[in-house]
Amino acid sequence: MAELGGPKQPHNHHKTPHSRTIRIWLKRDSGQYWPSVYHTMPDSCSCMSFNPETRRLSMGMENGTISEFILSEDYNKMTPAQTYQAHQGRVTVVLFVLEMEWVLSTGQDKNFTWHCSESGTQLGLYRTTAWVSGLQFDVETRHAFVGDYSGQVTILKLELDSCSLVTTFKGHTGNVTALCWDPVQRVLFSGSSDHSIIMWDIGGCKGTAIELQGHNEKVQGLCYAPHSRQLISCSSDGGIVIWNMDVTRQETPEWLDSDSCQKCEQPFFWNFKQMWDSKKIGLRQHHCRKCGQAVCGKCSAKRSTIPLMGFEFEVRVCDSCHESITDEDRAPTATFHDSKHSIVYMHYEPTTGWLLTSGADKVVKLWDMTPVVS
Ligand SMILES: [Zn+2]
Ligand SMILES: [Zn+2]
After folding, report:
1. Which of 133, 137, 225 is nearest to 172 (CA)?
2. What's the gap in Å between 343 CA and the centre of ligand 2?
3. What is the mean pLDDT of residues 251-271?
4. Less Cβ around it within 10 Å: N or C end of the chain?
5. Residue 228: its pLDDT value, please?
6. Where does the record place a coiled coil (predicted)?
7. What pLDDT, in 10s, does the model give residues 271-283?
8. Measured between alpha carbons, how far is 343 from 160 in angstroms, rounded to an integer?
9. For residue 195, how far is its CA from the centre of ligand 1 (angstroms)?
10. What are the angstrom distances between the C-alpha of 120 and each of 59, 136, 149?
11. Residue 41 falls within a domain, yes or no?
12. What's the pTM value of the predicted model, to 2 decimals?
């Protein structure tokens, strides 16, 4: 993965804590990127959605409004098109859906709303349980996937002016920070501050949910490369992981309950009766990540990666599982890269194979992903 060089910011020593500008960066003959448009907004921008076909830019604002612009063909001009008074408080996610002519948005007011992008009128509203940080939409079935700060993903079926709750996915122990939908395989990926990614296999219709463990910090973005069936994920420590999703992974087992080690039968520390009867010291309970058995530390001293269960990092396994895992089983199904900045936003463009990362350091980096995503 070669770094193409972050675009230079002309006035970076006059940074304001909240930027109110929209900049359109164009690649110049010199090979460098310079803004063609430098537009100041009445309030800070909190999120955006860009549709290349219509060149429609939808900006969510700190004050709850969504401002839309149409960019000129040469990207040298942007014209205001529509304003929506969508939320009371910061717009957290905005998503323009061309096929429906809908603008979906969520806000700090815990409302999920959708507007008609032609008339500008609000079509419907749904009250979410927590702040929403991830939003995806399936055009074919009109399902909206809404990921929130409580760690759950709510699936809503949208009608023209109403919606119904289909189901709720619960699996994360931290906020849902990113969502990514693959409409072909019908798979939803959710990333969380608990460092994990869950792949919810909706198309498989078997209720399979696979956990992917490859980050040491909170997951900040998810993108899917459909042609090569690779998932790109990034985290706040700058890590970028590229997952091969063309392999069949297994679900992690449920952790079993036992009052004694399921290998050596020594009692766990709360098992006073057996401790007294056998005059043995109570041990701490651990779980083997492969078989799920409750085991003591001595019977699970070894560590292994289990890539086909989503564990790209070494995890605790019991002695018998450690023996059963072959070198072939340990072949990684993901590659690991360092963006060298704390990523806050990421976007992948499948047509060019380029990845954009935007960092807490206010630097935008462009990466040529073709050597690793193809
Ligand atoms: Zn044991
Ligand atoms: Zn085991």
Report:
1. 133
2. 36
3. 90
4. C
5. 92
6. none
7. 787 777 877 777 8
8. 36
9. 29
10. 14, 21, 28
11. no
12. 0.89
